Batch of 2 targets.
Target 1
Amino acid sequence: MKSAISPIVGEFPTTRLRRTRQDVWCRDLVAETQLSIKDLILPLFVCAEGAPREICSMPGVFRYSLQEIVDVCGEAFDLGIAAVALFPNTPSELKCEAGREALNPNNLACEATRLIKKALPDLGVIVDVALDPYTTHGHDGLVREGYVANDETLNPLNQIAVSLARAGVDMVAPSDMMDGRIGTIRKALDYAGFQRTRILSYSVKYASAFYGPFRDAVGSKACLGTADKETYQMDPANSREALREAAQDIMEGADILMVKPGLPYLDIIYRLKETFAIPIFAYQTSGEYGMLKLASEQGLIEYRKALIETLIAFKRAGASAILSYAAMDAAKILKKG
Ligand code: PBG
């Protein structure tokens, strides 16, 4: 019998895509993408004791002292989070033009790593390799006549990587965008006996406006002033260049590639995934976190739903793991189901 209310006069649609969307159980059975707590990496800011904990531009995110950080990591580990990525807020009196504090074997990043690995050996610890938390000018490399010098920067980067590996870091994450750094860091690690230390390369890191709150958190914003990083980070207009960056890092020995920022660059994650058989991580940056947080505080969006939607989007695009300041929130949501 023909329905009088059929939208197509005298016919039923042959295919009804809504049939599989009727119930939760069925939607779950046909879901193409899964998001798991095990996919999440929590970035954490480490500071000296007595430094301010609040980060004004990142509501809900704090800097932790060495005394506090192990507890936070314990909480993350108990929730099932796979790894943490540590970022030091270096006291300004320890910063200099050359970023020498980066090579101090007892700096905040190394100390925090030692404490965390001792207390929680099964929690992955990742640390950036770049000079920006340590330099008075806030750049990721050494500055010579106003230009961030590529080859001269490689040497301190190699030393930072080895020093972090000695402290017990599982994965070093070069985030400076110098050319050739993956190859030299791999060699430096191998010669120092750290053949098993992984390299997560920030292969495709754009010169982005979404890093503002992070620079506040590590204290590089004031150092950087009005300067930008456009002479070494990538131009947001480019995607074929991203493939060249990735190919180069793979050839030089990277184990995993990272795309950053995340949500505005899902096309890049997808292209890398289609092109290379290497795991890809996505970084939901501080500015992206801020947009979610502030929009929800203003009542424009629902934080929990929007957060999970963004994380699923990373997975759908092809990321195998995601760094997110909201990793703990997401883990709690996923745990409840
Ligand atoms: C430093 C670094 C940055 C971020 C991670 N590592 C900032 C920058 O390049 O200036 C940004 C992270 C974020 O915004 O959440 N090399």
Target 2
Amino acid sequence: MTNALRSQFPILTPGLAYLDSAATAQMPLAVLDAVRSFETTSRANVKRGVHRLAEAATDAYAAARRDVAAYLGVPASEIVFTSGCTAALNLVAHSFGALMKPGDAVLLSGLEHHSNLVPWQMLTARSGIELRFLDVDADGRIDLSGLESKLDARVKLVSLAHVSNVTGAVLDVAAVVAAASEVGARVLLDGAQRAPHGPLDLKALGVDFYAFGGHKVFAPHGVGVLWARAELLDAMPPFLGGGEMIAQVELTHSTWAAAPAKFEAGTPPIGAAIGLGAACRWLGALPWADIAANEQHLCQRLLDGLGATPGVRVLGPQSLQARVPVVSFALEGAHPHDICQIMDSAGVALRGGHHCAQPLHKRFDLAGTTRASLALYSDDSDIDAFFAGLAKARKILL
Ligand code: PMP
């Protein structure tokens, strides 16, 4: 079945099967038009401007924050624009981390993206915070049976991927929130891989922080979102210092602006944020039940076809239950980079390597995998091209 949304994505021309959306998703015309309109009619720096363009840019930037907030079901004052998901996670590690004391602990898992590991390792090096880890089960899910034994009053934060960027497994957020609240720990979700697959109601999730990047939700590169509860943003010291994040500056000391400005030092990614606002408006109006059905149908085709291919091992849940269409696999006797190169010559864009999740691959005794990741514009022609390319790769490599 062809996908009607596809015509809104100018880059998706015939002959290209783009199966690398978990790395960067493509942008629809609605987003491209919004960015072009800003850059050609209102481009200027935000705040403090007293000319027409500066006022238009400031208004458009504020409207983008409202659009993102409305899509996530939270107040605009709780949305911090960052340069990406990684920057949002580093912000929490620095600013919430500054409120922790030596001996406090952060609970992570063995399947985290490096962006949700390294900032915490750096915090540990700075301040003696202990890191604890939930294991990964054979299906590539975080093993929540370890929650009780790893949570106690010393754990101030549980920081986990809402969806794994390798296995596609969706976290049981309610179980994590319930267990964390028993010991008074806050919960941060790395939502980079969940955000592209349907609307989010952050208040209903019951978490305290949520991070994701624009380029995976059909918006430009260079912008991301940190959502945090107002009381946390108020309590946290700023991470970066500079223009716009201050109330008053003296030569030797300064006072801070209220959040979210407190966390947005310097000129923000204005055009990219406006693109993200447009993406959120566009996402909010989509027929999500149909999109989910299509994504599941295509994911099932991937799982079935890979399951029937000799020498293939899928790293992740074999069923559609609580998983998104991100499918990583190893092909015995073939290197992921070789597979990707041959598939590229067949017009199929994949990703091969450790996908910034080295500990997860180590858990499965692998150096890397090949990943096919789908998005709302994927259709059967992509899956046909994938299996034709894989057959070609097997013929050449095995
Ligand atoms: N977390 C996860 C789960 C991801 O998949 C990614 C992107 N690969 C990131 C964090 C980091 O996102 P970015 O590189 O856009 O900052």
